[in-house]
Amino acid sequence: APAQFKINGGGDDKHLGEVVAAVHNYGSNPIRNVAVVVTLPTNGRHLILPHQEMIGPGENHDFRQCYQTWIPLPGSSSGLKGKAPVTVCFIDHTDQAWLRTSDGDVARTTVPYPFVEEALKTFGSVRE
């Protein structure tokens, strides 16, 4: 599901207050070490959300982060609706690490997750 955003302020003073990304485990086994990265389409900043140790089979988990740090939003905040790519990294029951994107792409990965490590290095990215 696309990330949802709460925008604070208005005009030139608008900034990101909260982001929520919902993840559903469609599998019949738990997934663990779940990491979520939301990429803002307006400026490419990565928002690294808090990890979740495990999501059980058929369960949903809302990855939610409120921001105390001022994160300005250039351009229209309506440009965020349904357009911020979400990347989920997790380990399955066979100990294989996976990366899944909101556009449906799935790829094997390794731990630590290279996508998350690269996101942390991107200028302006935020992990709180």
Write a concise keyword list for the protein shown above:
single chain, 128 residues, mainly beta, six-stranded mixed sheet, three-stranded antiparallel sheet, 1 helix, 9 strands, 45% strand
Beta strand count: 9
Class computed from helices, strands and strand pairing: mainly beta
Order of helices and strands: EEEEEEEEHE
| Strand content bin | over 45%
State the share of residues found in helices, binned by percent.
Answer: under 10%
Query: How would you describe the shape?
Result: elongated
Average residue pLDDT? 88
Rounded Rg? 15 Å
Taking the alpha carbons of the first and last residues, their distance comes to 22 Å
Largest sheet: 6 strands, mixed
Report low-confidence residues grouped into runs of 5 or more. none
Which secondary structure elements does this structure contain, and how are they paired or packed?
Layout: E1 4-8, E2 15-24, E3 31-39, E4 46-55, E5 60-66, E6 86-91, E7 97-101, E8 106-109, H1 114-121, E9 126-127
Please characterize this protein's 3D structure.
The protein is mainly β. A hairpin with a 5-residue loop joins strand 6 (86-91) and strand 7 (97-101). The protein starts with a strand and ends with a strand. The chain has one helix at residues 114-121; strands spanning 4-8, 15-24, 31-39, 46-55, 60-66, 86-91, 97-101, 106-109, 126-127. It has 1 helix and 9 strands; from the N terminus they run E-E-E-E-E-E-E-E-H-E. The strands form 2 sheets. A 6-stranded mixed β-sheet has the order 8-7-6-3-4-9, covered by helices on one side. A 3-stranded antiparallel β-sheet has the order 1-2-5, with no helix packed on it. The mean pLDDT is 88.
